[in-house]
Amino acid sequence: MAEEVEQLKVDETPISPIERRDSLEKHLQMRPDAKDLKDRHILLDTNAAPALQSAAQDLERQRATDSLKKGLEKRPERGELVERNILPDSNAAPAIQGQQRELERHMRADSLEEKMKHRPKPEELIKEGILQADEDPRK
To answer: What is the model's pTM?
Structure first.
């Protein structure tokens, strides 16, 4: 326990005024310029007086809020998006919708293959009068 207290002690040795000045100058040289601070959103990029900056920021936030509300009011309903094939007509969780589409595709392929197996032969269609003899697809 005594070792922990010794480790947590702050170094209180005095710094000479020259070392303090050199340290300050070094930090001032590394100081980012105003444009960099504005780009990183640390300083406000405004020409308004400091007393008006808060009001200007509130107005900008309110304008963004109003714009978002207007956009959400114009947003189409889910049913319309499904009709336009923008959203899938599925109640499955988004994480498994891809697997659901893959399964549906395989099921359609299997169904088509089964129907192709039971497809009537061209000679049967000619015999039943559905195809003419000159419309035989084998020729």
So the answer is: 0.40
